[in-house]
Structures are given as C-alpha cells and as structure tokens.
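Why do we care about 3D structure at all? Because function follows from shape, and shape follows, mostly, from sequence. That is the central idea of this module. The next example makes it concrete: a single protein chain, its amino acid sequence, and then its structure expressed as tokens.
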Amino acid sequence: MENKKCVMLQIIYLLGFSVMFYLSVAVAAETGEGKSSMQTYIVWVKRPVQNLFFVKSHEDLESWYHTFLPDTIANSNEPTKSRMVHTYRNVATGFAAKLTPEEVKAMEQKEGFVSAHPERILPLHTTHSPNFLGLQQGLGVWKGANYGEGVIIGVLDTGIGPDHPSFSDEGVPPPPAKWKGKCDFDGTLCNNKLIGARNFQSGKTTGGPPVDDEGHGTHTSSTAAGNFVKGANAFGMANGTAAGMAPYAHLAMYKICSEDGCTEGDIVAALDTAVEDGVDVLSLSLGGPSFPFYEDGIAVGAFGAIQKGIFVSCSAGNSGPSYESLSNEAPWILTVGASTIDRSIRATALLGDHGEFDGVSLFQPKDFNSTLLPLVYPGANGNPSSALCSPGSLENLEGKIVVCEGGRGRVAKGEEVKRAGGAAMILVNQAIDGYSVLADAHVLPATHVSYKAGLDIKAFINSTSTPTATILFKGTVIGDPLAPKVASFSSRGPSTTSPGILKPDIIGPGVSILAAWPVSVDNGTEGKATFNMVSGTSMSCPHLSGIAALLKSSHPDWSPAAIKSAIMTTAEVENLAGSAIVDQTLFPADIFALGAGHVNPSKANDPGLIYDIQPEDYIPYLCGLNYTDEQIQVITQQTVNCSQVGAVPEAQLNYPTFSIKTGSSETRTQYYTRTVTNVGPANSTYNLALVVPPKVGMSVNPQVLTFTEFNQKITYHVEFNAHDDAGKDGVPFAEGYLRWVSDKHSVTTRIVATFSTQ
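And the structure:
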C-alpha cells in the first residue's frame, strides 16, 4: 500500500455484521514516475453485429472483448489474459479488466465502446417466520406449491456451509433436466438440495470450494430454501422446527462476497453464470447506494436475468429510517424492506425502584444472579465515546450493570463492558431507532431496550445516589399484536434514480431471524445443527426469494413481473391487532417504509388479477428517464432508438403501484393507464374501491371490470389532479389506494402523490 492513497472511502455499518467498506469511487493513484495505478474497470460495449465482428460462439464474443484491450499489450510480453478479469455473455455485454485511466481513455475511441467505470465494492445487507407468514406443513400454499419442488434458487453471497442439516436433500427430488451448473465442493457435499456451488471471488471462478467463513450466505440460503430441521435453536432460544420459505426447492450458491464486501465484477460474473446454469430465482442480500441503472452492475445483470424469465429479489438496504436511502431501485427487481415477527427473546431490565423495561437478547444466561447490582451510565461524564461504550473507553466497572448508547457494533459494546469488568449491559436506543430492538448473541448478560426506556433508565440513575438494577431473562415470547413493525434500519424511499416508481416494493421478516449458521454461536451445540439469530434486510430478501419460488412452482407460466405483482397487490397494511402497521416510532409507517405492504404468501398465490410487464415494455420507460440510446443498450443488450420507440413517464409503466409527482401547473393533471390480466375465475366482475390521496382529485374509468375468460386483459384509465394548495402546508406527500374487489379477490394498487413544498 506504500505510495498509494485511497480516495472517498466511506464506512457503512451493517446490522448484525462487522463494519464493512463501500468504495464510492475505487480510485488509487500512484505517486512516483507519473504512472496511474492499474485497477479493475467494468467496461460496457455494444453487442457486435456481423459486419463489425462476426460472432457465432462464446469464444468469438470473448475475442471481440479482447480487441478493446490496450494495443500496448500486444507489443509487450504481457499476456492479455492477465488483464481480463471477467467476460460476460448472458446478462450483459462487456467485461471486467485491469486497466489504467489512460488505457480506458484510449479505449473510448474504439468502435463499439459504450462506457467504463471503476469497479465498486458493495456491502452485504445483513424457525418461526414460516408460521408467522401462514406457511404450515401439509396445508395451503406450501402444499399447493409442493414446498417449492423443482424450482432452483440462486443465492449470491458469502458461500455456504454445505454439511448443515438445513441443506439435507431428504424429500427433495433430483434437479430438473435443464440444470447445467457445477459444484466446487468435494465428494458428496452437493446433493439434490444444494445442486450448485461456485466461487467467484477475486476474478474468474476460482474452482475452490465456496466455504462460508462469515455466516451470512448460510443464513440467507437456509432462509430461502432450508429443509426442515427439528430442534433448531440458538442459545436454547426460539426452539422449534426450522425451515426455509421453499423447503423442497433446489439451491445454488455463488460466492461473491467476503466480510469486506462484494466486488461489482464478481457480482455480474455470478449473475451471468447463474442465468446460464438455469436458475429460476435469484436472491441478492447486498447492494450499494443509488446509481443510474446503466452504471449499476446489479441492475444491468438483473435485467438480463428477467429477459430469460428469472425472478430477481434484492434487499432494500440497512440505511433507514432516512428517506431516499434505498439500494436496488430498478423496477425489474423486487426491492425488499425489513419488518419484525411476533416473537421476541425477552430480557427485562428491572430497576431498583421496581420499574421494568422489556428488551431483547439472544444470550439468556441461566446462571445469572438476578440480585440488584450497581447501575452506571458512563456517558454522564459528557464523553461521547464513554456513552457509546466504544473500544478502550471504559474502566473500573467491576460488578456493575452498564448503560450503553446504541449505534454501531452492538455486540462490541458488550465486549468493552466485559473488558472493563462490567457484570451486564443495558443497551439503549438512540432517538432515531425509537422502539426497534434486536436480539443479539451478546458476550455477557445484556438487554437491548427502546429509546424511551433509555430516557427513563437514565432519569432513574440521576434520581438517586445509589442506582441499582438487574436483568430478568424470560426466554422466547410469542404474541406481539403490533407485529409486523417496520424496522428502523430498513431503507426508505422514495427512489432517487426513478422517483416515479414506488420503492421499496414490499416488506418481510428481517428482525431477529433464526436460520442456519456454519459454526456454533454458543460453543455448546453438538453436531452440525447450528443456528444464529441475525437482523437486516439481508434476512427479509431471502424470505421473498423463497416465496417467489413457491409462486413459480404453483404458476410456472408466470413472468417475473406477474410474480411480483401477485406479491404486491395482495400485501397487508395491517398488523395482527388489525391496526395500521407501525414503524420504530410506534406510529403508522408511511408508504416509503412499507411499499405495497407486508407479504402474505397465501393471498399472493391466488391474486385474482396481475399487472404484467414484458422486458421490452421497459424500453419506453428507460427512454422517459432521458437515458441515451447507448445507455439503454447497456441494460437491454439490444439496439434502441428512443426517437422511434417513444418515451413514457415513469408512472406509465404497468407497475402494481402508482408514484406521481406534481409541482408546476403543467404536472398538476396527469393521465395514466394500467392493464390487468385475469388469473382468477374466467367469469369475474371487479368493482372499484378508491381512497384518494388528500389534496389530489382522481377519476378511474371504467369503474367495473368484467372478465369472461382466463388470461383476458382489460385496460383502465386513471386521471390525477393535484389541488392548487397541494404541498403548501409543508406536507410533502399523500397516500391512497385503488382496489379492484370481486366476490373472491381484492387487488390493491397503493398510490403516493409527492408535492412540491416550495
């Protein structure tokens, strides 16, 4: 690293995992003799045509790519293969190569070149949930979908623990004949459940086994498609039968990540291979900040996947509750936010004045003496590091219960308390996280409580000269009527790349999720049935990937957009108590937190109507984003002429939600259409139910949809009229919905209208 400097390195904290790095622009400049350092670039080129370069095989395509490499290589002893990192042939037209900025500049003059950018490093977004979602053995959608039999889920992640019982193939038939993938594990570790395992780290497929050294990939894979495992628990908590969403689906692991993140070139290479292998669903619990779709490797690769009929599910990110904090915003991707389930691992802080504050902790020591102990708040001295219990900030805390402010590194705070001699920790939320608490595998007795509880606990400390407390460990508690709640960390919309598309699309279980782990977290579990409880949109994404596999199994002819529509139009916006779903404030969550709502697998399996989109339908939408023809070609891998195709507003895409923006007088009245396809009974009549967003007028025509055939399509028209005073009161957006109701189905399109508050 000598003589090099890193530019714009931003640290991003990811829930449940170590600190990782996102390289905003991966630029490193050498000092010395004026030469720029070499780095990996993602290069997009035009798909060659016959009169430019005759291509009839993958080898010809690779030869075409090599023509873009610097001419200087041909005049030296350096082999071109040493520069080429990945070549893409299915989901994208281009390659990843080691180049200098000067070489990239020279490449721009070559015919067929479109664009190049430095490779980015993207971060990971890191039991009872099947029951919470209404999935039960022998009943309903699980039975109807044969538990996902015959569907192949490709997971791009940190690898997998192949010998975990969650990946047993008991009851799982052989993979379908279309499967072409490989297994880089030795012996019999791959089976009818784990049918593929590849390692893409550091350029090309390494051929080495994709062992999971981090745990993330094992957890996400088992959440999507883990087989039934009885007696699953962590620290003896949440005991029961663990299963993924599609227990009999097949799994293919593509290792692209380490604890330091996931390189963009490896991600696109894995997507490219997964499509060729024959997967049906792709699950990516990772992503970076917002970029134009033609510069976003995941968006480009995902479009190539949906062109082949492959469903793509991605995590929304862990940068909430701030607005405009999303990852993976492309409309052809299902963008998944995180919510709670109705189970908690209860740990209650009991104060010396008998005040009790319920919190959570996965670590529930049976030998902890519940005697009241001295209670201290290190932050009382005004030192922010001490308040956060940062490494090296504490001392002389022997036998005391220590109050620590929340934030990055929850488990690490406990390690610092333990190092300083503390007996236990009460982790209190900062204001931004409100009532969102997470059950972690702490290293000492601990509980994580809300911001409000933290204020009361600190007030108690200030009220007496001898504050005391203890922690009461109450184990697994099921039955939270406010579940599901949106997690504070779950990234929020609106989309910055395409605000005319409502994102996130959906929320699903992502808080304190029990799933497979490659090693024992308590050093006490015998055998290979090791589990851990982790939180993040990384956990909610594979829930939706597995549910998509169930729908694919039940409806093999459905397109990716049809599956997505079924999930979104049947989503729930009420909790178990029948009230509006709340967020970390315990007030109703807004539409930029919820998207369409919380997934309901049983209803999604029988949606009545769907909003379908074919890959070519995205081209007018992309033209409407004012992308150039060449930029769109990067995404679609086909020649595009927007002047001939025509551009449409974002909200005209046949999406299952509406996101409109009004500002100037020219945009106060807007007209759109939607086309629905009947996938319910042939003879069906749907009546309109409309909740109009405040400060907006709406009309829908027709107001009754009458179908006489299965797969019949009907188009309806919607007019929006923003009031003159919309936004003048400082309220930036308003919500409503459009719902088609028959005697058997209710099909909901959620609406958000964003106003100019100028």
